[in-house]
């Protein structure tokens, strides 16, 4: 029996090649996208699960409550986890990562900067699972002066040779022995590094509770109730931290984040990771694409039901139960989707590199052919087949043999249902279109927004060490000799990412108060180099060197926070309030107010800030001319090497640095665009099929109308009218949904674009145009056909 | 075998109803060959559909092998279609996507026959209807007469007790028509299959042993047919 069904199904596919093509194409696009999105989602969900103790590891993060602000930091103080381990026996293990940032390693003649270098407790490989290529995980970081490299790093220095036992130097006095090489940290990790050092003596001793700068992890028993540990934190604060923070009104508590939920759920300050809502969104998009393809199938299958009605009647007459007929039609739709699955696998294989580049993932084809994934894919596809086939099966199997076999059958039924489905399809397409549009609006808005400074053509060079800064003035004057170098300045951090927070004693309307401000050390060239404006008072000047201890600049946000009416001349204590028995910190006065500028990406609000006058800061900013930029950069490099023959010349462009903050959103935006385009394509395929079908049905009517004198345009209008109506119906459904969801999405951004009415108008017009283009071909073809032909054929 | 008691069929029309069949009382015995005649719109086809359980009477009672048909479940009725009833249509109504062989095989599939049984049964029918050479052709590749032969082969495949034929020769040339009618006669005589046909043609009607005449939904007369023809 099944063979009989499959035979019929297969012959039907071959017989109506046009409709089969539309169906299979639609389903294939739907299934291909579904598979890709499924891969994406699977990848997102796989983060950090490869560790053996994944379900027992927790990251401990800090919640620091200031009187007017809550900071959520990934970092903690060094003694936190050691004291937890000491005090509570249920803490099985811990590991701390001390960030060492970018480290220049030397091995003989080879020298490279390695990003993301950390010093870690020797327990690190006991807590986390990393595969060792060389070395012993148990002892790797036990001795001081050890380093464990990732494979990629090791290859850079040692090629294919053994790295174990070799020595890497960081400067003349410090060297590390390679005690292990591990496989590169898998991409699906929330935390990545290129080399791990054993703790330095200072790091080993670090026991201050005042600074938050290390990342800490705990291993707790399986299924541990974290509230037990969390309930101990108030005690911990009273015992260790109250003495430092209480008088500033700062409260500190911690949160335990299960390792496997960090990537998708953690939302700490400055953290750029995944987001569970995108997992939902992409799953929904995949679902909608499959739904749209299913709708095409349903529409075409029911529209063409007349062709199958005789068969239904006959089978019933020969003793087929309705259920058997439904089974037959479901077999057909499932066959169709399984065919699409096979094609889709091919497409996925071809598109995977492209998808990876769009999504920023590195998904391999072999992940696709994992039995587990295939099983999910197959069940989704079979399910899609069932959904697609369900309504046609239900509808087709309902035909009464007596009616259909008389030959007077007219497939009027189901047309309301079909129309509804078309409306749904276009509503979904329009929602996707509007959403994509607004996402791009927001991304553009962020890219183009006036940051309060000029980020174009600014090179930043990070002095890695303190010592070469002595020769800064020489470098500066050498560089300025080139007319294409407009200005050179230094600041304590790159302008694209000014982090940190320092406590100052500040004169408020209610006396001196301790408060956290974003600190920045700048020299007298900085404001002018960056094109920042002073709105009151004056900037720093090399003529007034006393500013280093007597004068500070504040930004407008700081003025606002302090409620100062006249900011100039207000006192700022460089350091906290004077402590009993300690010398009073130097007191400076506010000498100028800088117009607010963005200190980090636009995901972060502008914070109150205090600028200190410091010559020779860590990060050089060089403003160059747009013309001959390449040559100028070359010139700068040449000068750099002349003055610092021992130091690598590594630079970045400020605007690129700035834009890299939006990479995640941009990637998601690109995925979204691709899929919303394809959604519309699927909907159009369906519409095209439907238009072809209805035009075929009305050929005789058109013939009669033309004989009676209808013009081509009036016939085209007649045929396009129905579909136009359906698309128009989809507008009031799509617009509120799109508006609501994008309004919510934009809530994530402190600086956001307004959703303009014109986005909706244009999206609707565009949808309408696409719909017309789709149907107009069929309409014109029917309208210009010679009526004699269509009338004679009856 | 078939017994209708006061069967009527009507459709709602406006505030009243339009009668298609009125008060039909009728018995058909096993082994009979009955022809139903009447002008267009007299209700012939409806009567045949009711007899074939494709439509339900609006009033009255229908006993098929002493079972009241109205009370049967869909499943039970389907059983009857599988095992007791065969249909032959004016427009042949073969499944276009299936070959001659597969068309004949289909009712056997529904009957749940094993594959080997099906094979021998279809082979036997192809042989009997001289269609062996055409078994892999599709309906569109056959002439009308040949299609109708397949239609009859399909109808008798499941060895039904009764065949309902709705103007089986309506679309055929007279030569072919005669061939088909002879076949019916033979099935009736040799295999003892009860045959009920609707026809316009007096000549074809004569093949039966009884003619029912319908006019405006009324059963007009019973005519004892002349049995000379042979």
What are the key terms here?
heterodimer; A: 794 residues; alpha+beta; 3 domains; 6-stranded mixed beta barrel; 27 helices; 51% helix; 18% strand; B: 230 residues; alpha/beta; Rossmann fold; disordered C terminus
Note down, in words, how this protein is organized.
The complex is a heterodimer of chains A (794) and B (230). Chain A contains 27 helices and 22 strands. The two termini of chain A are 37 Å apart. Chain A folds into 3 domains: 2-43 and 276-445 and 667-792, no CATH class; 57-265, no CATH class; 458-660, no CATH class. The mean pLDDT of chain A is 87. Chain A has 794 residues and is of the alpha+beta class. In chain A, helix 16 crosses helix 25. In chain A, strands 1, 2, 3, 4, 5, 6, 7, 8, 9, 10 and 11 form an 11-stranded mixed β-sheet that branches. In chain A, strands 14-15-20-17-19-18 form a 6-stranded mixed β-barrel. Chain A has a 4-stranded antiparallel β-sheet with strand order 13-21-12-22. The two termini of chain B are 25 Å apart. Chain B has a domain at 28-55 and 83-213: P-loop containing nucleotide triphosphate hydrolases (Rossmann fold, 3-Layer(aba) Sandwich). In chain B, the strands form 2 sheets. In chain B, strands 6-7-8-3-9-10 form a 6-stranded mixed β-sheet, sandwiched between helices. Chain B has 7 helices and 10 strands. Chain B has 230 residues and is α/β, with parallel strands linked by helices. Chain B is globular and about 55 Å long. Residues 225-230 of chain B have low confidence and may be disordered. In chain B, a hairpin with a 2-residue loop joins strand 4 (59-64) and strand 5 (67-68). Chain A binds chain B through residues 1, 4, 7-8, 11-12, 15, 310-311, 313-322, 324, 400-402, 405-407, and chain B through 45, 49, 52, 54-55, 74-75, 78-79, 81-83, 87, 89, 91, 93, 95-98, 102, 105-107, 109-111, 154, 158. Chain A: Keywords: Cell membrane, Membrane, Transmembrane, Transmembrane helix. Chain A: This is ABC transporter permease. Chain A: Residues 284-401, 674-787 form the ABC3 transporter permease C-terminal domain. Chain A: InterPro entries: ABC3_permease_C, MacB_PCD, Macrolide_Exporter_MacB. Chain A: GO terms for molecular function: transmembrane transporter activity.
């Amino acid at each position: 029996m099944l063979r009989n069904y499959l035979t019929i199904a297969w012959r039907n596919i071959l017989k109506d090649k046009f409709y089969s093509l539309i169906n299979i194409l639609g389903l294939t696009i739907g299934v291909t996208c579904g598979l890709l999105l499924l891969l994406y989602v699977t990848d997102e969900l796989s983060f950090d699960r490869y560790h053996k103790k994944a379900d027992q590891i927790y990251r401990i993060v800090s919640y620091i409550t200031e009187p007017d602000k809550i900071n959520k930091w990934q970092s903690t103080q060094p003694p936190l986890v050691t004291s937890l381990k000491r005090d509570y026996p249920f803490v099985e293990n811990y590991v701390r990562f001390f960030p060492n940032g970018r480290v220049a390693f030397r091995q003989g003649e080879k020298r490279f900067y390695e990003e993301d270098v950390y010093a870690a407790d020797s327990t690190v490989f006991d807590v986390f699972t990393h595969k060792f290529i060389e070395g012993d995980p148990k002892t790797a970081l036990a001795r001081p002066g050890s380093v464990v490299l990732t494979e990629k790093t090791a290859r850079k220095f040692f090629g294919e040779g053994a790295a174990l036992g070799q020595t890497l130097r960081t400067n003349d006095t410090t060297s590390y022995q390679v005690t292990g090489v591990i496989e590169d940290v898998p991409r699906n990790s929330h935390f990545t590094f290129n080399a791990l050092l054993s703790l330095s003596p200072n790091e080993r001793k670090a026991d201050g509770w005042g600074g938050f700068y290390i990342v800490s992890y705990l291993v707790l028993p399986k299924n541990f109730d974290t509230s037990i540990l969390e309930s101990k934190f108030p005690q911990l604060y009273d015992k260790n931290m109250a003495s430092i923070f209480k008088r500033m009104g700062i409260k500190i508590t911690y949160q335990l984040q299960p390792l496997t939920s960090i990537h998708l759920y953690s939302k700490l300050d400055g953290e750029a990771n995944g987001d569970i809502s995108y997992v939902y969104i992409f799953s929904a998009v995949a679902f909608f694409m499959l739904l749209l393809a299913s709708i095409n199938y349903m529409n075409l299958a029911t529209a063409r039901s007349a062709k199958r009605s005789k068969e239904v009647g006959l089978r019933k007459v020969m003793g087929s139960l309705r259920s058997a007929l439904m089974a037959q039609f479901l077999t057909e739709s499932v066959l169709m989707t399984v065919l699409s699955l096979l094609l889709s696998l091919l497409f996925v294989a071809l598109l995977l590199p492209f998808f990876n580049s769009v999504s920023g993932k590195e998904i391999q084809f072999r992940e696709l052919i994992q039995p587990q994934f295939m099983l999910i894919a197959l069940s989704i596809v079979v399910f899609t087949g069932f959904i697609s086939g369900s309504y046609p099966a239900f509808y087709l199997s309902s035909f009464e043999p007596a009616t259909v076999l008389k030959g007077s059958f007219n497939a009027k039924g189901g047309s309301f249902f079909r129309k509804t489905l078309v409306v749904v399809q276009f509503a979904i397409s329009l929602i996707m279109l509007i959403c994509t549009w607004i996402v791009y609006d927001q991304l553009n808005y962020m890219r183009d927004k006036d940051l309060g400074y000029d980020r174009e053509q600014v090179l930043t060079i990070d002095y890695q060490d303190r010592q070469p800064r002595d020769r800064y003035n020489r470098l500066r004057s050498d560089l300025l000799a080139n007319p294409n170098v407009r200005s050179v300045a230094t600041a304590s951090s790159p302008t694209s990412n000014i982090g940190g927070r320092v406590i100052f004693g500040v004169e408020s309307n209610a006396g001196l108060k301790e408060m956290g401000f974003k600190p920045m050390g700048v020299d007298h060239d900085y404001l002018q180099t960056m094109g920042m404006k002073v709105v009151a008072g004056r900037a720093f000047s090399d003529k007034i060197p006393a500013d280093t201890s007597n004068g500070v600049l504040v930004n407008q946000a700081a003025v606002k926070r302090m409620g100062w009416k006249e900011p100039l001349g207000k006192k700022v204590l460089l350091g906290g309030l004077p402590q009993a028995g300690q010398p009073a910190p130097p007191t400076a006065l506010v000498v100028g107010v800088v117009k607010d500028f963005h200190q980090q990406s636009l995901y972060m609000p502008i914070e109150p800030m205090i600028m200190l006058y410091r010559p020779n800061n860590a990060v050089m900013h060089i403003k160059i001319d747009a013309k001959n930029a390449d040559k100028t950069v070359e010139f700068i490099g040449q000068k750099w090497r002349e003055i610092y023959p021992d130091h690598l010349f590594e630079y970045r462009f400020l605007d690129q640095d700035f834009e890299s903050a939006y990479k995640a959103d941009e990637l998601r935006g690109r995925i979204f665009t691709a899929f919303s385009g394809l959604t519309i394509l699927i909907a159009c395929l369906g519409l095209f099929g439907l238009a072809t079908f209805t035009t075929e049905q009305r050929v005789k009517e058109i013939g009669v109308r033309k004989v009676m004198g209808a013009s081509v345009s009036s016939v085209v209008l007649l045929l396009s009218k129905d579909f136009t109506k359906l698309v128009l119906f989809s507008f009031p459904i799509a617009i509120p949904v799109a508006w609501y969801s994008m309004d919510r999405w934009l809530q994530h951004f402190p600086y956001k674009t307004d959703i303009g009415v014109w986005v909706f108008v244009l999206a609707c017009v565009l949808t309408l145009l696409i719909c017309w283009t789709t149907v107009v071909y069929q309409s014109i073809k029917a309208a210009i056909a010679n009526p004699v032909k269509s009338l004679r054929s009856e | 075998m078939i017994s209708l008691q006061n069967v009527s069929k009507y459709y709602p029309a406006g505030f009243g109803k339009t009668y298609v069949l009125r008060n039909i009382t009728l018995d058909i015995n096993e082994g009979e060959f009955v022809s139903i005649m009447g002008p267009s719109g007299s209700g012939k086809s409806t009567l045949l559909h009711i007899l074939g359980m494709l439509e339900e009477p609006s009033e009255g009672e229908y006993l098929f092998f002493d079972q009241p048909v109205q009370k049967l479940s869909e499943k039970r009725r389907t059983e009857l279609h599988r095992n007791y009833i065969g249909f032959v249509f004016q427009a042949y109504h073969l499944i276009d996507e299936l070959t001659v062989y597969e068309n004949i095989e289909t009712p056997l599939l529904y009957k749940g026959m094993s594959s080997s049984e099906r094979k021998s049964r279809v082979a036997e029918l192809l042989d009997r209807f001289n269609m062996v050479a055409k078994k892999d052709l599709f309906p569109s590749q056959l002439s009308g007469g040949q299609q109708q032969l397949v239609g009859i082969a399909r109808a008798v495949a499941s060895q039904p007790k009764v065949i309902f034929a709705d103007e089986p020769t309506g679309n055929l040339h007279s030569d072919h028509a005669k061939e088909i009618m002879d076949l019916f006669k033979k099935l009736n005589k040799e295999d003892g299959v009860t045959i009920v046909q609707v026809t316009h043609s007096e000549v074809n009607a004569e093949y039966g042993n009884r003619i029912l005449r319908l006019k405006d939904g009324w059963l007009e007369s019973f005519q004892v047919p002349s049995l000379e023809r042979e």
